[in-house]
Amino acid sequence: xxxxxxxxxxxxxxxxxxxxxxxxxxxxxxxxxxxxxxxxxxxxxxxxxxxxxxxxxxxxxxxxxxxxxxxxxxxxxxxxxxxxxxxxxxxxxxxxxxxxxxxxxx
Length: 106
What we know:
mainly alpha
């Protein structure tokens, strides 16, 4: 009897990265479309923000502590923490804007 390959944490995070990249591409295409619905843009932006927030939380609470312990490389993990803090700040800014604001699509 064949068994399905079990995914490990790296596979899960990689799939998550790919899914978010796909959503960014979808957003770019939507934003380029003349007459696209601002509401669709807002909904997709909120979904992207939510996915990134959950992903970052999983990395910070589960993955990064294990990696930090295994490789004992503080600088690389500290940089990842700074990147996540920057992402949280950008997400907060996006959530305060609405589609059509000058920096919303930036």
